[in-house]
Amino acid sequence: MSGRKNAGRTSPWMLLLISLVCFFATYNFLTMPSRGWDVPRKFLGGGGDRGSAVSYRLGSGSAADPTKRFHVALTATDALYSQWQSRIMHYWYKEMRGRPGSDVGGFTRILHSGKPDGLMDEIPTMVVDPLPEGKDKGYIVLNRPWAFVQWLQKAKIDEDYILMAEPDHVFVKPLPNLAHGDEPAAFPFFYIKPTENEKILRKFFPEEKGPVSKIDPIGNSPVIIKKAQLEKIATTWMNVSLKMKEDQETDKAFGWVLEMYAYAVASALHGVHHSLRKDFMIQPPWDLKSDNTFIIHYTYGCDYSMKGELTYGKIGEWRFDKRSYLQSPPPRNLSLPPPGVPESVVTLVKMVNEATANIPGWEDER
């Protein structure tokens, strides 16, 4: 998620609320007795209203068990860069939600810019407040846990589970509930390495909680988790994120993945451990095929020569990079990759093209 927020003036009560939440979260969960968990990680498989979560009626092809349905929660800003990605993501949510095998329920875009934007009638949205001015120190993602805290407190969410998602996610096939009861499902990120960062993490995960190997190598997204569990974790996640950002050593070490580490730590503090699903999503251009996954995450640029050779780190003769569209959405009917480019990249571009061709007013200013 990118783009600067338009925070506006923050009232004194909001500052007081955040301070109180952070204090009690620190006290309660750093003094909570250890649960004695030391379980090996499991790898499995290869227009809305402000103030409410909106649920769609599912089609007849949806999964039979309504208790397995999950609510899709998408955190976003009002920046144009975030908006066009959210529109594509929401389009594919609607396309996949009623197909056989899907456990998808309702959808909410949690807009943490503090004010409505031009997509309120197109995408079910709840507006929440950003952090106080300057609190994120230029790291916009720090608003995500605070946004979830507010949403969980204010929204009526019918489903028992929640999928935490991001604007640059595309559903490539119907997504079942990958969680198993109290064990959430998460995607393992190769660059989240708790055991290699034990010295830093001990500032936030005390020794009495056990080994740092209890911290899963994950971020908060994509994660399918019980709503009741997330309600407990969210405040701690926010608190740990803020504390990490304030600590210069931690901020320098974790950089743009700081908030991901904070979610992993917060979950471990609550004794919540995740099933690690490599098949949850892929990330082109490094992952080459999309047939054994549920989500394409287009966070990396895809640069190729006209011979189909990857030129990562160098602008290719053919490219698709979301950062090319910071000020305007990608045009309809993007050119397809040249022969030899991996299927995952071809599928991504085709899905972007299908969405933009079918979203009314795609290139209109919002």
TrEMBL record:
One of its GO terms (cellular component) is membrane. It holds the Pfam family HPAT. InterPro entries: HPAT-like, HPAT/SRGT1-like. Keywords: Glycosyltransferase, Membrane, Transferase, Transmembrane, Transmembrane helix. One of its GO terms (molecular function) is glycosyltransferase activity. It is found in: Membrane. Residues 70-363 form the Hydroxyproline O-arabinosyltransferase-like domain. It is a single-pass membrane protein. The chain crosses the membrane at residues 12-30. It comes from the Eukaryota. This is Hydroxyproline O-arabinosyltransferase-like domain-containing protein.
